[in-house]
Description:
Blueprint: H1 4-11, E1 16-21, H2 27-40, E2 46-51, E3 69-70, H3 75-84, E4 87-91, H4 102-108, E5 112-117, E6 128-131, H5 138-149, H6 158-171, H7 182-193, H8 198-206, H9 211-223, E7 225-228, E8 233-238, H10 240-245, H11 256-261, E9 268-274, E10 279-285, H12 291-298, E11 302-303, E12 307-312, H13 316-326, H14 331-334
Parallel strand pairs: 1-2, 1-4, 2-3, 4-5, 5-6, 8-9
Antiparallel strand pairs: 7-8, 9-10, 10-12, 11-12
Helix pairs in contact: 2-5, 2-6, 5-6, 6-7, 6-8
Amino acid sequence: MLDIASLINLLAQPQKIVITTHHKPDGDAMGSSLGLYNYLIQQGHHVKVITPTDYPEFLSWMPGNEEVMIYTSHTEQAANLIADAQIIFCLDFNALGRINEMGELVRSSKAFKIMIDHHLEPEDFDDYRNWNINACAAAQLVYDFIVNVLHNKALINADVATCLYTGIMTDSASFRLPNTTSAVHRAVADLIDAGAVNWRIHELVYNSASENRLRFLGHCLTNCLEVLPEFNTAIIAVNKYDLDKYDVNTGDTEGIVNYALSISSIHLAAFIVERSDKVKLSLRSKGDFPANDICKKYFSGGGHRNAAGGHSTDSLQSVINQFKLILPEYKKLLIQ
């Protein structure tokens, strides 16, 4: 493992660096990656952000986005960059399976691997780890890495601040989750002082939906929402036909689960969607209910206590039925 002094010495000279994050990156994944990118290029490092898959269009405005390489579109070039890298930053994920085919490329690379993450039970593949499960976002930990590990707060310029603010804002549900501590607000204040325009970032992320996306949301709430009052649980289930009918693109389903959770009596919400190769689940919960426990035990996933995900190769209806059958096990927690 690298100690802090060795890491600082390593970064004191220009390095060939790859930054990567989990598949289907969200606001925190891209915000933390591009925030770190914009920090590192100021010091003369040769940096490339490589994502395993595409990501939502509403995140494409962030500074440095034009330099992002999508692995599935540039497989050979990306593989060469990973093989040649001297340092690989792994952001917002803790297991190499989360970056799909890139995982084994990163594992076999001779580069130093630095994990910056806030998920439970990290896999032991890294040489240095800035990891804290109590952090509200990986972007918060990138801020901490720059300010408290590398002691380079002066290099948080407007581009760095804008990206990190985006990551913290999106992963904290606009600063609403319990792990949005006073330390988070102090970091966010620093980012605003450094040039992050908070109201503009909110507009670009949350008020940029397509008409199709809005009509799809209406369909989900009108036709796909099922409330189970005996378990204080709500489910929104969507099939492949609906995805095609509303021309659903990457990112269009993001956040829909939160509408189910917004019902006053609901403690657990599930968004279950049928994709071409598997059925995916996104769970959100209130209070102390362990959404991640359900995903880990039954749906080959995991995540945070109040925000978790999983998947299954069973049919959509089978997954819905399985989810409902699990709920009695958690009834005491759900009806508190």
